[in-house]
Design goal:
Elements: E1 7-8, E2 13-15, H1 21-34, E3 37-41, H2 47-61, H3 65-69, E4 79-81, E5 101-105, H4 135-160, H5 171-175, E6 178-186, E7 200-203, E8 209-214, E9 220-223, E10 234-235, E11 243-247, H6 249-254, E12 263-266, E13 273-281, E14 287-288, E15 306-307, H7 308-319, H8 324-330
Domain Fe2OG dioxygenase: 177-282
Protein name: Fe2OG dioxygenase domain-containing protein
InterPro entries: DIOX_N, IPNS-like_FE2OG_OXY, IPNS-like_sf, Oxoglu/Fe-dep_dioxygenase_dom
């Protein structure tokens, strides 16, 4: 197998129950400047509920392929994504996509909501009633609870950037977020970087932050210096009950590269692996532009302002298969 030898990365751990906010801010700032990855513990979601969410996720991925394809993701990125649907690292993946399957769940907007016809909003693409009893309710509850964890982390990030603690809580930001829960299942293939075979190809995340819950099977790797030749990859150890949090590209743009999004990938080791990613992004109409605390005459903005939905649409289109591919298969 062409897996490179790696070492486990030592990540800071942010305790959301810690009354000393300054300590949390300092730990987070250090993590963001070092690796862009950290653990979040004591976040308020019980271990029992986390285990229930993983059990329900396994139930979904255990359905027959034909059943899952009935809720194939739509143009608004809701629903099932088959194995090889996503190609995150075309330069190295030799035109073979990721060996993972997934399921997108977004913020629910009812059909009578004027926002519901816009990309990234709208009703979710749920399994038919009776297929998985109680499944939808479990996922909706987890979506709500993880949003609160994400908002708590965003407050600490704001303080670390010398902003008001509630900066990211404004209506145009996380007041109406594009918050996407994504269930993931890696089926147990063995990855081989030398052959361009990955569970998930090397990539950075698109939004503000990502919160990742994992089972106890390792596979996640990070590269702190994406420009290094050769790149050095470090394993991120699973931590029971914790979220692994990483920074996204929008935060890199907002912070003028003070905080950088971190390159990461997943290597399969032959074991099946389940994880749950929660991508926290601002509202679709949020203008992402350099923060006032991150620019000066000697350090002008490095990126032009861009609307959140324009940026996300481009990134999704770059990495996902054209839906017409599946229409042809099913014809």
């Amino acid at each position: 197998m062409g897996k490179q030898s790696t070492e486990f990365s030592a990540l800071n751990s942010i305790d959301l129950s810690n009354p000393d906010i300054n300590q949390s801010v300092n730990l987070l700032k250090q993590a963001c400047l070092d690796s862009g990855f950290f653990y979040v513990v004591n976040h308020g979601i019980s271990q029992e509920f986390m285990e229930e969410v993983f059990a329900q996720s396994k139930k979904f991925f255990s359905l027959p392929h034909k059943e899952k394809m009935k809720i194939l993701r739509n143009e608004k990125h809701r629903g099932y994504t088959p194995v090889l649907d996503e190609l995150l690292d075309p330069e190295n993946q030799v035109h073979v996509g990721d060996y993972k399957e997934g399921y997108y769940i977004g913020v629910e907007k009812g059909e009578d909501d004027p926002e519901s016809n816009k990309p990234f909003y709208g009703p979710n693409n749920w399994p038919a009633p009776g297929v998985l009893p109680g499944w939808r309710e479990t996922m909706e509850k987890f979506h709500r609870e993880t949003l609160e964890v994400g908002k708590a982390v965003a407050k600490i990030i704001a303080l670390a950037l010398d902003l008001d603690a509630n900066f990211f809580d404004q209506p145009e930001m996380l007041g109406e977020p594009i918050a996407t829960l994504r269930l993931l299942h890696y089926e147990g293939q063995v990855s081989d970087p030398l052959k361009g075979l990955y569970g998930a190809g090397a990539h950075t995340d698109y939004g503000l932050i990502t919160l990742l819950a994992t089972d106890d099977v390792s596979g996640l790797q990070i590269c702190k210096d994406r420009d290094a030749k050769p790149q050095k990859w470090e394993d991120v150890a699973p931590l029971k009950g914790a979220f692994i949090v990483n920074l996204g590209d929008m935060l890199e743009r907002w912070s003028n590269c003070v905080f950088k999004s971190t390159l990461h990938r997943v290597l399969g080791n032959g074991q099946g692996r389940y994880s749950i990613a929660y991508f926290l992004e601002p509202s679709r109409d949020c203008l992402v532009e350099c923060l006032p605390t991150c620019k000066s005459d000697s350090n002008p903005p490095k990126f032009p302002p861009i609307l959140c939905h324009d940026y996300l649409t481009q990134r999704y289109n770059d990495t996902h298969a054209d839906l017409n591919v599946y229409k042809k298969q099913q014809a």
